[in-house]
Amino acid sequence: MEHEIPPSQKDRQLPMIINLRGDEDLVDEFNWDADQVMEFLGIKRSRLTQISGKELRVARIRRDRYLRPVYREADVRDYQEWTRATATHQSSSRAIEQAIDSLDDRFSDILVVLQEKLLQYEERSTDLLKSQLHKLDEAGFQRFQDIRDGLETQQGLSDRQDKQQLRVLEYLIQQKETLAFSQAELQELRAFLGSFHQDIRALLVAQQGLRRKMEEAQAAFQKALHEQSRGFQEALKSMQETLALLQSGQQQILRQTEPIEAPAPAPLKQMPRRPTPLHARRRSLQKPMAAPRDAAPQKQQPSPHDEAPEKVDGGAL
After folding, report:
1. In 10 A of CB 71, how many CB atoms?
2. Which pLDDT score is estimated for 144?
3. What does the alpha-carbon distance between residue 30 and residue 17 come to, in Å, rounded to a whole number?
4. Helix axis angle, 73-82 relative to 34-41, nearest 10°?
5. How many Å apart are CA 313 and CA 317, to the nearest integer?
6. Residue 131 dihedral angles phi and psi, to the nearest 5°
7. C-alpha distances in Å from residue 79, one per residue of 11, 56, 76, 196, 283
8. Which of 18-32, 37-51, 105-119, 218-232 has the lowest mean pLDDT?
């Protein structure tokens, strides 16, 4: 019985997800655990979880009270041959993984810095509250002391009592202003902490959206690579068929063509060489002047300028 099996698995008789009890004949074949598969394929656990049951056959068996995923060596090797990528894809995948790791590290650093800032603000607010409480305690003690001194001197010195009451009133006004200023600082600190918590939440939401976009981009990239590899395989198959047709046609042409012997060239006739106009002019200039009638005719000596007619080689022509 055949199941809907992706092209990454050659065995189409078994489903992609198998539940084993432990007494089947296939138990011995599924002897690879998740760590061995990750080490063999060079992928992370999240990627293995993503492809298990979809592109890579997985079996589930109960071990130590838990259901463990196990894999078959042949299925893992078929998946490796199907997903074998080029150097460019490996470098781009490695760059994407490094970018994701760098983003996680940077976000972790930001969280650490924010936590340190929160601790600093908490310590600062705590110290501020403690100092204000200590001031209030000291002020209250001093106020009661002044009141007691005023009561002691009130009986005989009415003028000093009035001055002391005015001093106490002024001090109370200052303490009131100090308390109001402390309350304003506490409110500002509370507003800052509220906006700070909102910024942290916005950062968390943005980080989740960015991670989701990265996963979608990676899935689209994997799909495009798959389609490109399939197109390359189809083009290679068509080129192989065309090459086979060309080779068969060439063999037929060679079988139909017979060697033809060319006839030998006929020998060329030797033709006498005609004197050039330059040679004729030289001969006319070298003729001797007319001798007197009484003089005996002298024999004309050959001129060194006279050139013998050159023989024409028939083979050279």
Report:
1. 23
2. 67
3. 12
4. 30
5. 7
6. -65, -40
7. 11, 7, 5, 48, 99
8. 105-119
User: What 3 state SS string does the chain have?
Assistant: CCCCCCCCCCCCCCCCEEECCCCCCCCCCCCECHHHHHHHHCCCHHHHHHHECCCECEEEEEECCEEEEEECHHHHHHHHHHCCCCHHHHHHHHHHHHHHHHHHHHHHHHHHHHHHHHHHHHHHHHHHHHHHHHHHHHHHHHHHHHHHHHHHHHCCCHHHHHHHHHHHHHHHHHHHHHHHHHHHHHHHHHHHHHHHHHHHHHHHHHHHHHHHHHHHHHHHHHHHHHHHHHHHHHHHHHHHHHHHHHHHHHHHHHHHCCCCCCCCCCCCCCCCCCCCHHHHHHHHHCCCCCCCCCCCCCCCCCCCCCCCCCCCCCCCC
Closest CA to 52 of 30, 69, 35: 69
pLDDT tens, 220-244? 999 999 999 888 999 999 999 999 9
Supply 7's token pair.
């092209």
From residue 15, alpha-carbon distances to 31, 34, 55, 124 in Å are: 17, 19, 11, 63
Compute the residue count for the chain: 317
* Inter-residue contact 22 to 62 (CB < 8 Å): yes
Q: What does pLDDT average to over the chain?
A: 78
Q: pTM of the predicted model, to two decimals?
A: 0.29
